[in-house]
């Protein structure tokens, strides 16, 4: 039988018959997809880095829920349905808002609405404070870095948003939105009517105002429901301060997304920390509404403006006091460290309180999906939020963003992680504010205070890790 001769002596004369994806660069041949170019290597490394960060964020979701279980008062009663549906709601909201054209449009609308709202607040401030509320005048006289006065800008924005919220509540608009959100969470997660309503209300109101929506049920709420209400307050932000952070330069779209996503997160984290063992009075839903306290729209605006002024003064007082206390603490720590380093003959700059807390929070930042190089910086921002408040955390984050020291992914994730009132000061605010509405439950509020703060942190961190999976 005649054998066919096969020639292995060299490359084929033409590569036209091969698929472009398998062509190789050879002498006299053509460039192929298998050739390694510097550009292709960079693209591949970048893709691998994103995948690794997404996997770390997925690990973070598991770890944060696991931490809630470790801290649970009844580990045998893990609320599987509540947790799984809560995480599913979060993923659904995140995908719709972050990954669709509708979501991008919502981002744009939110940004434009907040910018216009801040502009309207500036009009009112200009009438009251004159040139002190006009950035162009201040910039021309004092330089661009002094184009606004913090106290004036903050106060005007908070007062306007508070007045509008009061008006919408008087008209019944706010209640309808809150009830719609509460209905979704109650149906999906099987939470009670009162705790679902409180979680939904906290998206728009402060942690001491939202309980007013369920005031008739506060006395009869179970301890598990009480903790769910408190965690919801710790894990969300009020509309008034939300607008302030947008004015600082924080993304309005991400703030709104975080506030909505944190509501179901707060519920399932609270149910892991303290599973329900008693029969709820509102297991079938809430059927009554608290009466309106205003008689007409004018009174609603006036009351809202007054409440906004009180809130603005509190915000300014807290910022002033906490910044001063941190400066004092750093001075004391620095003095002590200088003496110790001198005795040891060591030359080292003193470690500040922010740096120390940053080291403690760096692992949490990594679990959310923050790149390793930014974990200490983001951890410091998170530490400021816990020890002081989220306002100072956002101020530090904006400074880091302007300096260009953080990866854009780190800035986005830190925006989500900071979106909540969870700090030591809020424990006292909840005990005092909610305790005034229902004095017989003050002891329960005090016992659950620190647990609620931890739950609020875990809810915010879980939301951030879920967003990290999608970024």
Q: How far apart lie the N and C ends?
A: 65 Å
What fraction of the residues are assigned to beta strands by DSSP? under 5%
Determine the oligomeric state from the structure. Answer: single chain
User: What form results from the Cα inertia axes?
Assistant: globular
The Cα radius of gyration reads 27 Å
| Sequence of secondary-structure elements | HHHHHHHHHHHHHHHHH
Structure description:
With 471 residues, the protein is mostly helical. It has a domain at 55-304 and 444-470. The chain is 69% helix and 0% strand. The chain contains 17 helices and no strands. It is globular and about 65 Å long. The chain starts with 37 loop residues before the first helix and ends with a helix. The model is unreliable at 1-37 (pLDDT under 50).
Give a quick summary of the entry.
The chain is mainly alpha-helical and 471 residues long. 69% of the residues lie in helices and 0% in strands.
